[in-house]
Amino acid sequence: MKTIKNICCIGAGYVGGPTMSVIAFKCPDIQVTVVDINAERIKAWNDTDLDKLPVYEPGLKEIVATARGRNLFFSTEVDQAIDQADMIFISVNTPTKTYGKGKGQAADLKYIELCARNIARVAKDDKIVIEKSTLPVRTAQAIKNILDNTGNHVNFEILSNPEFLAEGTAITDLLNADRVLIGGDSTPNGEAAKQALSSIYENWLPKERILLTNVWSSELSKLVANAFLAQRISSINSISALCEKTDADVDEVAKAIGLDSRIGPKFLKASVGFGGSCFQKDILNLVYIAKSYGLEEVSNYWEQVIKINDYQKQRFADSIVSTLYNTVSGKKIVFYGWAFKKDTNDTRESAAIYVANALLEEQAEIVVYDPKVSDQQIYADLDRLNTRSEEENRRLLTVSKDPLTCVDDAHAIAILTEWDEFKTLDWETIYTKMLKPSFVFDGRRILDSKKLNAIGFKYSRIGES
Ligand SMILES: NC(=O)c1ccc[n+]([C@@H]2O[C@H](COP(=O)([O-])OP(=O)(O)OC[C@H]3O[C@@H](n4cnc5c(N)ncnc54)[C@H](O)[C@@H]3O)[C@@H](O)[C@H]2O)c1
User: Fold this and answer.
1) Residues in the chain with pLDDT < 70?
2) Probe residue for ligand 1, chosen from 53, 93, 164, 285 as the CB with the greatest number of ligand atoms within 8 Å
3) Which of 192, 258, 310, 382 is 20 to 30 A from 26 via CA?
4) Is 163 a catalytic residue?
5) 3-state class of 51 per DSSP?
6) Residue 91 C-alpha to ligand 1 middle, in angstroms?
7) Does the pTM of the predicted model rise above 0.70?
8) For the segment 305-320, what is each residue's pLDDT rounded down to a tens digit?
9) d(Cα 137, Cα 128) in Å, to the nearest integer?
């Protein structure tokens, strides 16, 4: 088995950055270079001020501080890093297609193909190429074809090694992964490549947690894992709507069913809806793949998970409008939270974007406070929807750096992200600053309803009448 001395990772995003930092941290004898075409991102990864890293994850900056400059490097020299590496991870984005066949569902593989062509052009000795990005089942075949047909006649072994980290807990997830999945060919070269990758993870994970499979099972398992996780959220969210009509309490229902060991307690928290760059994209991809194999029923089944999620976001916005006497025009509504979940600065597909958009359509005036998300990001998220002009987005929505001053004369506060700090805000003071009646809409079910009602708020939350 070849000993891996030099790793290159193409893509310094939310997966490439943290994943490679942990590999470098745990394997000081391996040189790890993370490359990206986005020079600004690389500059941020190299910033001496570790609070300016482009990805915020608890524990990440400490790991980067230890490994960066020792055996962890961030660079824009893509070709050089490919040339020097024994093993190349592809960790670029695979967004939903916005054009052509499969528009709105299929994964856009243009970035993956560019990487494959780049590797083929540069590589002058044998390489192990690893799909870290989430990809449609059978993509490894396409990568192999490109590498073999456009390469310099060196041997490429393709492995699938999907990433299961969750943003917000990326570092603990990487350090204590439930499992690592490695899919590859069962040829001698394929087996050797799988062992080479496995030996890297064995530096910190028990061997039993490293699953070796064929490539297609590995590629498909990632999509299926995300589909099952998102399905649980949509399942409990669909029940939250029923709870609101029947005086049942969705947390009590979740607890009662979660104690059944066949169901289990995790991922049963009702909320304003899931977000993040992966769940929706990966389910749509699954929907598209099933449809393309003529499996219409399978495709429709999984699509329903997305429909319930959209319904949940719309329902939350609708309930704000109807509770505020059927009009929010000109009313100040404060959003606590914009990130798609706590402990991350990632806003991709965040429920907040869609709830804001729906309320702006009703001419509400929104003020956003999020402890980790920048103004530019918030406006970029809204502008991307193309619902109204950029000027109008900036006129109707403002961003605040202070959760207390921004509530002056507000009609309502909506909790969009479950940041812990919202639980310990000075709610008595907040109440005194708001217009009366003062409404709080808790889309994450994190606040103490008894306390807020006692203060005088009109408090409501998803999943309770
Ligand atoms: N974010 C998550 O929580 C998560 C979890 C598991 C898996 N994934 C999957 O991992 C993949 C990457 O996700 P991400 O969130 O890190 O994306 P990201 O957008 O944060 O990062 C991708 C990076 O790749 C770079 N890139 C694109 N093409 C390139 C090229 N040809 N050469 C060099 N760099 C290039 C981009 O500039 C970008 O910085 C996706 O397939 C995603 O589905 C993501």
Assistant:
1) 1
2) 93
3) 192
4) yes
5) helix
6) 5
7) yes
8) 999 999 999 999 999 9
9) 19
